[in-house]
Amino acid sequence: MNQGGSPRASVSVVIPYFNNAKTLPRALSGVAALVLPPSEVIIVDDFSDDCIDESGLPDLPCPLRIVRHSRNLGAPSARNTGIDLAEFAVVAFLDADDLWLPEKLQTQMCHFEHADGSARVFSASNCLLIGNGGVLIGDHNAEGPADGRSLADFLLCERGALQTSTLVVPRDVARAVRFRPGLRRHQDWDFVLRLEQAEIALRYVPSSLSWYDIGDRFGRISQKRGNIRASLEWFAICREEGLLTARQIQSGFVNYCLSRRSARMPWELCRAFLKVAVLDPAGMLSLVVRRAGSRSLQVGKAAVRRARLMRAGHGRGTETKSGKFPQ
Hints:
- By secondary structure, the chain is of the alpha/beta class.
- It has two domains: 11-215, Spore Coat Polysaccharide Biosynthesis Protein SpsA, Chain A; 221-311, no CATH class.
- 35% of the residues lie in helices and 17% in strands.
- The strands form two sheets. Strands 3-2-1-4-8 form a five-stranded mixed sheet.
- A hairpin with a 4-residue loop joins strand 6 (121-131) and strand 7.
- Helix 7 packs parallel to helix 9, helix 8 packs across helix 10 and helix 9 crosses helix 11 (297-311).
- The protein is globular, with a radius of gyration of 21 Å.
- The protein starts with 10 loop residues before the first strand and ends in a 16-residue tail after the last helix.
């Protein structure tokens, strides 16, 4: 590896890795091209089936460390391992299938008042969404959170986004807050909401400083029942801990769980959602139509009927033989 003699940021880059052999060289090529390089890169292999071939990786201007879990623990735990191993004052997160642009660290490190990472701030930026074949889909959110607005409102009510590969966090703050182990979805949102809860201020960069590779997930991810269940699990945790209000959960459910293609919402998922937050059924239908579009009206009506039946104490017993619920 080429260690180089150019100035480096006091930054440890943490990359969780799980069977990302095809995309890891691209991610590291972005690190190698940074105008202001980091001081180290830590790859945490979360017990992958494939092995990382160091000979096929690009030269970096800083030391590279590769550690391997003895069993699969998930991306949040892999990031936490990297945080614990970090030797420098600030940690920057990079997923193995994403790509940083050259100005990434130079731009975001300017938002830290102290180079030693002692400031009670963290940084995030806009990013470009990249689909199959490297096709540019657009950016996430150039404006970022408005002053005085909570991150929960920005993410769930305003369809904003703060993606993991844009986050730069003081190491001591990251060690105190940590990623939530075992979380299947919304790992980045959960992390930034708890940063906000710990009174760590966001310094947002409206420029796109990374590529977020969503592959063929665009437009389809919310249709998978497993993803909806994972979202409901997270909503329940956040409601219990006070990270989200019922209104924010309702907006998040409509924006990120209900399909734009009007697939009927399964009964068990509707019931699980209602256990998370007791909501106004009419308000839910209004949000479905306003946020998800008229094609999701069928989904909204079904959910409203089921909600009213549950509130009336009928449970599932009033379902007809045809599987449809009465108006």
